[in-house]
Write a structure and sequence with these properties.
Elements (H helix, E strand, L loop, with lengths): L1 H30 L1 H9 L1 H20 L1 H5 L1 H23 L4 H24 L8 H23 L2 H15 L1
Helix pairs in contact: 1-2, 1-5, 1-6, 3-5
Length: about 170
Protein backbone atom coordinates (compact mmCIF):
# COMPACT_ATOMS: atom_id res chain seq x y z
CA UNK A 1 0.00 0.00 0.00
CA UNK A 2 2.81 2.44 0.80
CA UNK A 3 4.48 1.65 -2.55
CA UNK A 4 1.21 2.36 -4.32
CA UNK A 5 0.77 5.69 -2.50
CA UNK A 6 4.37 6.65 -3.31
CA UNK A 7 3.71 5.88 -6.98
CA UNK A 8 0.50 7.94 -6.92
CA UNK A 9 2.36 10.86 -5.30
CA UNK A 10 5.05 10.67 -7.98
CA UNK A 11 2.50 10.59 -10.81
CA UNK A 12 0.53 13.54 -9.44
CA UNK A 13 3.70 15.52 -8.79
CA UNK A 14 4.64 15.07 -12.45
CA UNK A 15 1.10 16.04 -13.46
CA UNK A 16 1.25 19.16 -11.28
CA UNK A 17 4.53 20.22 -12.89
CA UNK A 18 3.02 19.64 -16.34
CA UNK A 19 -0.03 21.74 -15.46
CA UNK A 20 2.19 24.50 -14.07
CA UNK A 21 4.30 24.62 -17.25
CA UNK A 22 1.18 24.56 -19.44
CA UNK A 23 -0.48 27.31 -17.40
CA UNK A 24 2.63 29.49 -17.64
CA UNK A 25 2.88 29.13 -21.41
CA UNK A 26 -0.86 29.69 -21.89
CA UNK A 27 -0.58 32.84 -19.74
CA UNK A 28 2.11 34.17 -22.08
CA UNK A 29 -0.05 33.49 -25.16
CA UNK A 30 -3.13 34.98 -23.48
CA UNK A 31 -1.88 37.98 -21.51
CA UNK A 32 1.17 39.22 -23.43
CA UNK A 33 -0.57 41.28 -26.08
CA UNK A 34 2.28 41.32 -28.68
CA UNK A 35 2.52 37.51 -28.55
CA UNK A 36 -1.24 37.07 -28.79
CA UNK A 37 -1.53 39.49 -31.71
CA UNK A 38 1.44 37.88 -33.48
CA UNK A 39 -0.23 34.46 -33.31
CA UNK A 40 -3.59 35.86 -34.44
CA UNK A 41 -2.00 37.80 -37.32
CA UNK A 42 0.16 34.83 -38.41
CA UNK A 43 -2.04 31.72 -38.58
CA UNK A 44 0.97 29.66 -39.68
CA UNK A 45 2.17 29.73 -36.06
CA UNK A 46 -1.16 28.25 -35.01
CA UNK A 47 -1.16 25.57 -37.71
CA UNK A 48 2.50 24.70 -37.09
CA UNK A 49 1.67 23.80 -33.50
CA UNK A 50 -0.36 20.77 -34.58
CA UNK A 51 2.39 18.91 -36.50
CA UNK A 52 4.94 19.75 -33.80
CA UNK A 53 2.64 18.19 -31.20
CA UNK A 54 1.76 15.22 -33.44
CA UNK A 55 5.41 14.40 -34.19
CA UNK A 56 6.29 14.52 -30.50
CA UNK A 57 3.29 12.39 -29.60
CA UNK A 58 4.06 9.77 -32.26
CA UNK A 59 7.69 9.69 -31.14
CA UNK A 60 6.54 8.92 -27.60
CA UNK A 61 4.10 6.26 -28.77
CA UNK A 62 6.33 4.54 -31.33
CA UNK A 63 9.76 4.67 -29.69
CA UNK A 64 9.36 2.22 -26.86
CA UNK A 65 13.02 2.04 -25.86
CA UNK A 66 13.68 5.67 -24.89
CA UNK A 67 10.33 6.10 -23.17
CA UNK A 68 11.09 3.22 -20.78
CA UNK A 69 14.61 4.34 -19.74
CA UNK A 70 14.92 6.67 -16.79
CA UNK A 71 16.55 9.85 -17.99
CA UNK A 72 15.03 9.67 -21.47
CA UNK A 73 11.45 9.18 -20.31
CA UNK A 74 11.54 12.40 -18.29
CA UNK A 75 13.20 14.30 -21.14
CA UNK A 76 10.60 13.07 -23.64
CA UNK A 77 7.79 13.88 -21.21
CA UNK A 78 9.19 17.40 -20.77
CA UNK A 79 9.41 17.89 -24.56
CA UNK A 80 5.87 16.53 -24.92
CA UNK A 81 4.65 18.95 -22.23
CA UNK A 82 6.31 21.87 -24.02
CA UNK A 83 4.79 20.96 -27.41
CA UNK A 84 1.35 20.40 -25.90
CA UNK A 85 1.66 23.72 -24.06
CA UNK A 86 2.72 25.47 -27.27
CA UNK A 87 -0.28 24.04 -29.13
CA UNK A 88 -2.68 24.91 -26.31
CA UNK A 89 -1.19 28.39 -26.02
CA UNK A 90 -1.65 29.13 -29.71
CA UNK A 91 -5.23 27.89 -29.52
CA UNK A 92 -5.95 29.96 -26.41
CA UNK A 93 -4.66 33.14 -28.06
CA UNK A 94 -7.77 33.05 -30.27
CA UNK A 95 -10.22 32.87 -27.36
CA UNK A 96 -11.43 35.13 -24.58
CA UNK A 97 -9.38 35.10 -21.39
CA UNK A 98 -12.39 34.14 -19.29
CA UNK A 99 -13.04 30.99 -21.31
CA UNK A 100 -9.40 29.93 -21.15
CA UNK A 101 -9.16 30.32 -17.40
CA UNK A 102 -12.56 28.72 -16.87
CA UNK A 103 -11.20 25.61 -18.59
CA UNK A 104 -7.99 25.89 -16.57
CA UNK A 105 -9.93 26.19 -13.32
CA UNK A 106 -12.10 23.19 -14.14
CA UNK A 107 -9.00 21.13 -14.96
CA UNK A 108 -7.26 22.15 -11.74
CA UNK A 109 -10.31 21.39 -9.60
CA UNK A 110 -10.79 17.97 -11.20
CA UNK A 111 -7.08 17.20 -10.73
CA UNK A 112 -7.21 18.19 -7.06
CA UNK A 113 -10.37 16.16 -6.41
CA UNK A 114 -8.93 13.07 -8.13
CA UNK A 115 -5.70 13.46 -6.16
CA UNK A 116 -7.55 13.68 -2.85
CA UNK A 117 -9.69 10.71 -3.86
CA UNK A 118 -6.63 8.61 -4.76
CA UNK A 119 -5.01 9.27 -1.40
CA UNK A 120 -8.12 8.68 0.69
CA UNK A 121 -9.80 5.68 -0.92
CA UNK A 122 -9.20 1.98 -0.72
CA UNK A 123 -11.33 1.34 -3.82
CA UNK A 124 -9.51 0.00 -6.88
CA UNK A 125 -11.12 1.10 -10.13
CA UNK A 126 -8.92 -1.05 -12.38
CA UNK A 127 -11.59 -3.78 -12.36
CA UNK A 128 -14.34 -1.35 -13.46
CA UNK A 129 -13.13 -0.68 -17.00
CA UNK A 130 -16.55 -1.20 -18.64
CA UNK A 131 -18.29 1.20 -16.29
CA UNK A 132 -15.53 3.80 -16.64
CA UNK A 133 -15.62 3.48 -20.44
CA UNK A 134 -19.40 4.01 -20.49
CA UNK A 135 -19.10 7.04 -18.19
CA UNK A 136 -16.36 8.50 -20.39
CA UNK A 137 -18.55 8.09 -23.49
CA UNK A 138 -21.43 9.81 -21.68
CA UNK A 139 -19.11 12.65 -20.66
CA UNK A 140 -17.82 12.95 -24.24
CA UNK A 141 -21.35 13.14 -25.67
CA UNK A 142 -22.40 15.72 -23.06
CA UNK A 143 -19.32 17.79 -23.90
CA UNK A 144 -20.02 17.68 -27.65
CA UNK A 145 -23.68 18.57 -27.20
CA UNK A 146 -22.81 21.37 -24.77
CA UNK A 147 -20.23 22.85 -27.14
CA UNK A 148 -22.74 22.80 -30.00
CA UNK A 149 -25.50 24.33 -27.89
CA UNK A 150 -23.21 27.02 -26.48
CA UNK A 151 -21.82 27.88 -29.91
CA UNK A 152 -25.33 28.69 -31.15
CA UNK A 153 -26.10 30.52 -27.89
CA UNK A 154 -29.29 28.59 -27.19
CA UNK A 155 -28.58 28.65 -23.48
CA UNK A 156 -28.23 32.42 -23.20
CA UNK A 157 -31.48 32.91 -25.18
CA UNK A 158 -33.31 30.48 -22.91
CA UNK A 159 -32.01 32.23 -19.80
CA UNK A 160 -32.95 35.65 -21.18
CA UNK A 161 -36.47 34.47 -22.01
CA UNK A 162 -36.77 32.99 -18.52
CA UNK A 163 -35.77 36.29 -16.93
CA UNK A 164 -38.18 38.17 -19.16
CA UNK A 165 -41.04 35.85 -18.22
CA UNK A 166 -40.23 36.28 -14.53
CA UNK A 167 -40.42 40.05 -14.87
CA UNK A 168 -43.82 39.81 -16.56
CA UNK A 169 -45.24 37.73 -13.71
Amino acid sequence: MSVRHAFIRKVYLILAVQLLITTSIIAVFTFVEPVRLFVVQNPAIYWASFPVYLVTYLMLVCCEGPRRRHPWNLILLFIFTLTLSYMTGTISSYFDTKAVFLALGITAIVCIIVTIFCFQTKVDFTSCTGLLCALCVVLLVIGIITSIVLSFQYVSEAIMSLFQSLQII
